[in-house]
Design a protein that fits this description.
heterodimer; A: alpha/beta; Elongation Factor Tu (Ef-tu), domain 3; seven-stranded mixed sheet; globular; B: alpha+beta; Jelly Rolls
Chain lengths: ~290, ~160
Amino acid sequence: MTRKAAAVAAPVAADPMMTHPVMIRRVIWENDDTFTLSLDLSDALPEYRFQPGQFNMVYLYGLGEVAISISSDPARTGTLDHTIHRVGTVTTALAHKKRGDIIGLRGPFGSSWPVEAGRGKDICIVTGGIGLAPLRPLIYSILRERDAFGRVIVMYGGRSPLDLLYRVELEKWGNEHQVEVLVTVDRGDSSWKGHIGVVTTLFSYIKLDARNTVTYVCGPEVMMKYTVDELERRGIPSDQVYLSMERNMKCAVGFCGHCQFGPTFICKEGPVYPLPRIRQLLDRKEL
Amino acid sequence: MHKEDLTEILRQHPFLFGLSDEMMHVLIGCASNVRYAEGEYLIHEGEVANNFFMIRTGRVALEIDVVGKPDLRILTTGPGEVLGWSWLISPYRWHFNGVAVVETRAVALDAECLRNKCEGDPLFGYEMLKRLAQVMERRLEATRLQLLDLYGTSLTEGQR
């Protein structure tokens, strides 16, 4: 299988079931419900490396384990960021952790965004909500070699202006790295001067060179489905589109079956898929 | 502005892509160039819908009056998009406020003029209706997605 046709197989830990204790270096609150844990890996996992789009299993001793995407720069070693949405028991408990606390980590797991597929081409990143977190390592990778890519467009949808993630960085990407950043929210007040509407409405404001654009999509599944419809409407070939899928992950190594998505396990073959691999599954209910 | 200049502007607006010269000629008689400063209202809820706007630059927010609360902004329209279809549907009154979020330039089509031309030339009227129906369909689809509140409630623990 060519690199273009598949998401990249990426590093997996030597013993994938082994949890390593790592220290929280910093906690950054991105909005009311979402926070970023910056972890210190220098003692427990000095050789740890990951590829953009991969995830870890984050373990809170005595409480449970959750799959969380890595949101930091893959080129940075000794440290790692996880941006976490507070929605359940483990993530709520994680939200109470502070600098110096120890949590468990195993990973990295899953396939990654194929950065190489976009080299020399225009890049279109479409994302919504916390879907920006797994795409941030990809954006860092592209910006590190900015000249190797054509136009870079980031289309990002959030619930409200206050819910947007990485607001300072979004502005910086636009101002300093020639990234076309288009942000929209589902609802705003008079202080918000930006777009209001779902992320797919942003396609009205850009013109894509269909044959020369590689698209990376991550967000709620319904959003991704409508984004794929929009990309098809604009003639983007499906083998130039990559999506990161979402299901409940438990073991992360393809044993338990919790993350089954049609004929694949998202923890092993995904989370990043080339669109042709899953196009039919997007329209199927109860998968 | 000369009629020729306005024709050229309208030709470049996506809503009118591919419109025949004859129909463009019919349309141009109703058109005028308009500009709104930031914070200026283009339309007011409840008032007569006397224009159909084709946005050229800037951004317009649609607001709903909510009694006892600040106005809620639910949608913005920008360059290449249109604002308003109440001009075509009786009783021809706006259902929202529309305010320029930033300085906005548009072509305004006089509603009564346009309605008369649609009535007088059914082919032209049908063409306008087909184009407007596409806008309505896209807006309805987008509104359905907004109603799902995708980013607020879709996550469960165990998902990334």
